[in-house]
Amino acid sequence: MELTYFGHSCVLLKGKKTVLIDPFAPDAEFPQNPDIVAVTHGHADHMGAAVELNRPTVAINEVAKYLKSKGVPAEGMNLGGTIILEGVTFRMVQAVHSSWIEEAGIGCNGGGAAGFVIGMDGKQIYHAGDTALFSDMNLIGELCHPDIALLPIGGRFTMGPDEAMIAARYIGAPLVIPIHYNTWPVIRQDPEKFRTALERTTDIRVKILAPGETATI
Ligand code: NI
Ligand code: MN
User: Where are the beta strands (DSSP E) in the chain?
Assistant: First the structure.
């Protein structure tokens, strides 16, 4: 499977299907015709171009309802649930964050925020979305045994590097890819410092991807 990071929280998984997670990326161009889109929550820097893409889209009920009202073939689900679309498994897991859908200056509650554990081609990929550190990340590790964890490290709106180090240990995935940093000055972080600190203290490896970069996983 190939994993491409487009910056911020936007990631494409390319296996037997293409799955685009959180289609918002100011620094790189993501494909416009993925088989499936997954949206972690209603904030504009995650829902992004989900309406324009107009692809089968997995999201929490409130976001899915909004997308459906725009004509998007969205599939609603909620925390703790699993959906299988075109042979790809999406497990929706907790994220400690808020959600708000805004359009032309008017907004509505987007339900909650979520993360996904996506199963494809025998691999489990955890995308944490936007979240604070919470100890039930242990359960995500115990239940899903992710092979890869995509974790926010930007701080201010999500975990920063210190919390993400603990999150990585709770989840137990052998490989961590940092996301949601350096998009703007307010979430500036040095991912090399995060990598060095986590690799020095654990067996977990950290892969830093530049926007537009692809890793084979
Ligand atoms: Ni957010
Ligand atoms: Mn965000």
Answer: 2-7, 10-14, 18-21, 36-38, 57-60, 74-77, 82-85, 88-94, 100-103, 106-109, 114-120, 123-127, 148-152, 175-179, 205-206, 213-216
Q: Which ligand is closest in space to the CA of residue 101?
A: 1
At the fourth CATH level, which superfamily is domain 2-216? Ribonuclease Z/Hydroxyacylglutathione hydrolase-like (3.60.15.10)
Mind listing the pLDDT tens digit for each residue in 133-161? 999 999 999 999 999 999 999 999 999 99
Q: What angle do CA 173, 151, 92 make, to 5 degrees?
A: 80
CA of 119 to the centre of ligand 1 (A): 23
Residue ranges of domains in the chain: 2-216
Q: Which tens digits make up the pLDDT trace of 42-75?
A: 999 999 999 999 999 999 999 999 999 999 999 9
Q: Which residues surround ligand 1, an ion (CB under 5 A)?
A: 43, 130
Residue 18: pLDDT band with limits 50, 70, 90: very high
